[in-house]
Amino acid sequence: TKDVIENIQRITGNNFTVERGWQEIEEIISTWEVHERWLHWSEFLQEEELQYSKRYHYRVCWSVPTRRKPIPRATASVYFVIEISKIKPATLPVDIFFTLEASRLIRRPEQCQFREKWLKDIIENKIILMKRL
């Protein structure tokens, strides 16, 4: 997976649009080894203006609908940030990071292999919490 992600042609700062950012995220997700039963949808959340960069925030929501339960009891979200530097040349590729729901660990797609277990753990923990409440 790591080699595949490194071969993805990253968009540059001067070619960036919110739509192109969404497409880039979908391309990264397509390299993840996630079983086909997992479905996801994604949305653009916000643009954040910082002193030295601009950040674009997206959310990808995952679930496993079934015939018995087409509306899943819980979902797992992965949050992506695309950062465009105001200092570096606009011809350089954008930086992309992601975090899992309820986690502070920031990951780069090209530096770690996504694990389906992360999604399962989030959903299982939510279901356990709902049962306790």
From TrEMBL:
<dbReference type="Pfam" id="PF14469">
    <property type="entry name" value="AKAP28"/>
</dbReference>
<dbReference type="GO" id="GO:0005952">
    <property type="term" value="C:cAMP-dependent protein kinase complex"/>
</dbReference>
<dbReference type="InterPro" id="IPR053084">
    <property type="entry name" value="AKAP"/>
</dbReference>
<dbReference type="GO" id="GO:0034237">
    <property type="term" value="F:protein kinase A regulatory subunit binding"/>
</dbReference>
<dbReference type="InterPro" id="IPR025663">
    <property type="entry name" value="AKAP_28"/>
</dbReference>
<protein>
    <submittedName>
        <fullName>AKA14 protein</fullName>
    </submittedName>
</protein>
